[in-house]
Write a structure and sequence with these properties.
The chain has 277 residues and is α/β, with parallel strands linked by helices. The protein contains 9 helices and 12 strands. Bound molecules: 2'-monophosphoadenosine-5'-diphosphate. 2'-monophosphoadenosine-5'-diphosphate binds next to helix 5.
Length: 277
């Protein structure tokens, strides 16, 4: 009698030691009693294709992809979901029969699910969203906000050209404002999102003036080290609803885990605690 294969998954990036995904998926595998494994893999760019072609033969059912490979892996995919095409990057690969690779991007999904979970009263239609930053993370955030029906995304980035490029890709609902003007856009926003690395431990503080924050607004930060960033602390003091960035990491992991291991995992306090270990 043939034994079923133990399903393997993991996360590919470089560096990878800091990744919380192995803690998270390991927690779910134990919680649901699944005989699988999820491991961190530090892979150099030059080895990326060879590694991806080899993993299915070793029993891998898929992998997450993180910095700096999210864009590059698109070239090795046999099929790409619409949302990954729109974002221009993939964070979740599913290996199918004979090793064919399906590339998906669940970052926007993770962002919006985390927002809806942490701020259940937020409505996309309620007003403009101010997005700070125009890097890879901002692309996922903006695609999900536009998809959710936000009337306007006010986008501000230190390097204006990058924001203009996002506007070219995502269309007329994006309005670009200069980085020095970002503070003046705060007061009219229904939602403020920081997608820059500012405010992260070891990085400079977010320099955008925040005196426009007021009750009724929702403020979220993709930075989750520390869990309460300077932006979130200021927002809490101003009476805003705040949503921390750890949840996005948890929610973006759900579709991959479900596809690879066949169980849709729950996100609860134990899940958060596991990812913070
Ligand atoms: P990610 O994939 O996490 O979005 P990224 O593509 O490197 O990472 O983007 C980092 C974001 O943080 C960018 O919006 C970057 O602004 P630039 O496009 O001008 O580089 C922003 N950022 C990083 N350091 C910054 C700083 N000191 N001041 C203002 N913005 C900063």
């Amino acid at each position: 009698m043939t034994q079923p294969r133990i399903p393997l998954a993991g996360v590919i990036g470089s560096p990878i030691a800091h990744s919380r995904s192995p803690l998270l998926h390991g927690h779910w595998l134990r919680t649901y009693g699944i005989r699988g494994h999820y491991i961190p893999m530090d892979v150099h760019e030059n080895d990326l294709e060879r590694v991806l072609r080899t993993l299915p033969a070793m029993g891998f059912v898929g992998v997450n992809v993180t910095v700096p490979h999210k864009e590059k892996v698109m070239a090795f995919a046999d099929q790409i979901t619409d949302r990954a095409i729109l974002i221009g990057a993939a964070n979740t690969l599913i290996f199918r029969n004979a090793g064919s690779i399906l590339a998906d991007n669940t970052d926007g999904y993770g962002f919006i699910e985390n927002l809806r979970s942490g701020a259940p009263d937020w409505r996309a239609e309620s007003g403009p969203a101010l997005v700070l930053g125009a890097g890879g993370a901002a692309r996922a955030v903006i695609s999900s906000l536009v998809d959710a029906g936000v009337p306007e995304v006010v986008l501000s980035n230190r390097t204006r050209l990058r924001a203009e490029r996002l506007k070219a890709d995502f269309g007329h609902r994006i309005r670009v404002v200069d980085w020095v003007q970002a503070g003046s856009a705060v007061k009219d926003a229904a939602l403020v999102v920081n997608t820059t690395s500012l405010g992260m431990s070891g990085q400079p503080a977010l320099s955008v003036p925040l005196d426009g924050l007021h009750p009724g607004m929702v403020v979220t930060d993709l930075v989750y080290t520390p869990l309460e960033t300077g932006l979130l602390a200021a927002a809490r003091k101003a009476g805003c609803t705040t949503v921390d960035g750890l949840g996005m990491l948890l929610f973006q992991a759900v579709p991959g885990f479900e596809r690879w291991f066949g169980t849709r995992p729950e996100i609860d306090e134990a899940t958060r605690a596991a990812a913070l270990k």
